[in-house]
Amino acid sequence: MDFTGRNSQPAQPAASGAQFAGPNTNAKRGKSGDKASWFRWAGGGLGLLLTALVVAAICAVAFNDSNTEAKLVNKDKNQAIFLNTGQVYFGKVTDLNNKYITLTKIYYLQTSSTGTTTANQQANTSVSLVKLGCELHEPYDQMVINRSQVTFWENLQDNGQVAKAIAEFVKKNPEGQKCADQSAAPNSNSNVQGSTNNTTNSTTKTTNP
Fold it and tell me: pTM of this prediction?
């Protein structure tokens, strides 16, 4: 008997639009997506690293500049600090960086005119070096100066008039400055200097009217 036609079934034609198994496209897409994500992460990390390096370089330069400048301070000499307001302070620089300058043992100049000035007369101007500390507010002998207020600073030689006046003042006041009683409030015409010992040698200059 012929059984060849009983169990065999004719091949069914493929339906239109049927999907055939092919290469795993999802796997390929996953691999390319992973690579793109890795490149993005690497690029972001490299950007952060470069930013950190730039900031570190700027900080290093600023620190080295201030550190180099601080080494120029002669601890055995007095220094002069010139402010952009025109005021000058003398003393010992104990700390210097790119934000502030700390000054101790401070002196400053004070000018005063004597006599009257007419067409036929000349006015005498006296310049005195005053020790800080006996002013009305009685500050401590330390000053922290903002670097933005400093025009320049310099070391002073011992044979200069300011250094000599400071040395003479220290010699005459071995125990430090003695301030007078400031309990009474001064009037508008009073001298608020407050000490008989805080003025050093003065230099008198003659100026033309």
Answer: 0.57
